Request: fold
Amino acid sequence: MRWRIWTAPAAVALGLAFGVFATLIVQLVGHAAGSSIAHPTPAVNIVSDVVFDLSFVGAALYLASLHGRPRPADFGYRRPDARTAITACVLGAILYYVATSVYAALLNLNGSDKLPSELGTGKSTAALVATAVFVCVVAPIAEEFFFRGFFFGTLRRLRIVVAGRNLGTWVAAVLTGILFGLAHTGSASSQFLVPLGFLGFVLCLVRWRTGSLYPCMALHSFNNALALGVDQHWSALGVLGVMLGSWLLMAGITGPLSARTSAFAVQQ
Reply:
C-alpha cells in the first residue's frame, strides 16, 4: 500500500488534535474522581499517556484507510529474516549507544528521565508495574506503528535525487527522527531530545534494512527497559527480566498481525 505523502503531516496534526482532546477527557474524568488538574495522580497520568499514543495510531489508521483497506503488512507487520533482524538490531544498538555516549561526554550531560517520576514509580508497586508495561510494551508498539510503520513508510515515497541517487529514504529517516525526538519534549529533558531523535533515525534504518516493524519494536523496548532499569536502580537480572517479559507481551499482542509473506517479498 502506497499512501500519499500529504497523509504523513496530516497524521501528525490529526493525532495531536485527537491526543489533546482525549487527554483532556481523561483528566476531567480523573478530576471528577478526586485527581488534581494541576497535579494529576499517577493513574491519570498513565491513562493519559496511553490514550495520547493511541490517538496517533488511530489517526494513522484513519488516513491509511482513505486509500483502501490497509493490511498489517503495509505497516511493517511482517516476519523478518531472523539473522538480518538480529544483525540490524545489534548494529543499530551499537551505533546509537556509541553516538549517545560521545554526545553525553562532549556536553557533560547528567540527569534522568522525567517520565518515571511523573508516573509515580516511587509511590507504589502498582504504579511501577503500570509504568513498566506502558514504557516497555505499549509505547514501543504504538510509537513504532506510527513513526516507522506509517510516517516513515509514507515519506519514503519522497524522490530527492542528488548526483543521480535518490536520497528520499534518508531524508525520510532524518525527518522521522526529528519528529520522534520532538514528540518526547514533555517526557524527557531537553538535553536528551537530540539522542532520542537519533534513536528515531536509527530505528528507521532498522525498519528499512529488515522490512519489518518487529525488530524496531524489540530495540525500542530494549532501550526503554534499560533506561527504566537504570532510573530505578534495578539489577542486571531485573532489567533482563523486564526486557524478556516485554518482548513476550509484544509478540503476543502483535504477532498475530504478521503476514507469512517474506519481508523482502513485499516492500512498502
Q: What stands out?
A: The beta strands are 161-162, 165-166.
